[in-house]
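Just scan this pair:

***
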Amino acid sequence: MIIINNLNGKNLFGINTELTGKGIIGTDLADRRRDCGYILTKNGVESYNLTDITEDNGQIILYNPELNFQIKPLFNEKNCMGTVKRLLEFYLKLKEIGVNVDSFSSNLFYKTEDDDLLMLPPFLVNFINARESLSKNIVDLSIYNHPDLKGERSILYSMGIIIYKNVTSDYPIVYRDVEDLRDKMRRNKLSKARWKNILISDSLEELLDSLLDTECNITVEETISKIDNVLETGLYRAEGDYSQEIKINAVKEQSMLNWEKRRAFFRLNLGKITIITLAAALFFSIAGSIIYNKLKPPTTSGFTSQQVLEAYFQSFQTLNTELLDETLKKGVRNSDSSELSAMYVSSKVRMQTDMMYRVKTPDEWIDADETAKKDLTVYGIKDLEITNIDENKYSVKYERWFMDTKESDEIIPETGVFKVVREEIFTLTETKYSYVITSIETLKDEIELVW
């Protein structure tokens, strides 16, 4: 799609759809002349139509000979916050007159030479977008829109992406194709803005987190208020020594990227892995043993709620994935099971080549000789404090130690030992045999470099 301001020597305003007039497409595009576009001027919202249709080199052009807008890109300034605010105000005014915009497209909004905001006819733009090449559709549409959001929340998510790109000069998701992009949007696998630009202010970081977290039910009005706060307090914090924070952020980002690489590998080879696993299961086990394992009481049978909670943390010390799964209700903190399983598998693989290898707990690692620490793997829980605050409800403080192994020279300069300092509220519910953790509320979650 191309905006045109001149046709056969006459000044006008129109769109070269880059679609051919053959068949039903030509008829459908002719019908699109009834669609309204809108302009936000100082006097309010005005509508317009692209009333005429013609062809140029076989491509259909819709235009209005009575209009002569000279337009420019919507986001062409260093700081886009003011434009985003105006765009959201435009959205609210359109809503007042019964015009609903379900999603954002990079070829939907523009500025005129008078700095008015112009929206092309949205039904026409959607019609064109639906017939674009996949590669162009990703750039125009997919990178801005969450696949499961519509209407106001979809627009706000798009604004979050736009602001993110503006202040970091980067995109928050590393993706292979549109399906990978949508999958990572659904799982919220976005790099934090401060991972890309350490100087981003607290108020801007809070705004971006609100817009890009799909669990956050922020409104347009609240977003405008937050933008005003950012503009008042500043987009960036003062220059200073952020080297420690930069290193920690790099580890967080690389950890996410490494996990995504492993996940992509398993998804790509799921068929092979499944066949091998099934063959091994059929060869080494019988149906009776499988049924027995499914029906037998859990290891935590007869435990009190506090004992189950203690078992949860003990599973990290012993890399006991079965015990961990027995303490957690299905769907609660699935990342724990994935992480522990990965650590368990990697340790078993390592032991095949080094019979003396063993993952050290934090206390064991601290007690080790300084010269040996660089060759040791540390993982587990330290300084665990459990306080009963209500029936089957506990306040817990602890540190989870881990190592991040360098897989890429681009982000992490060296391997390090880190700890996540957490304060959380655990709620447990009684089951047939014992208790399971049904809720974890995180009050504090900070990562620190240990060594």
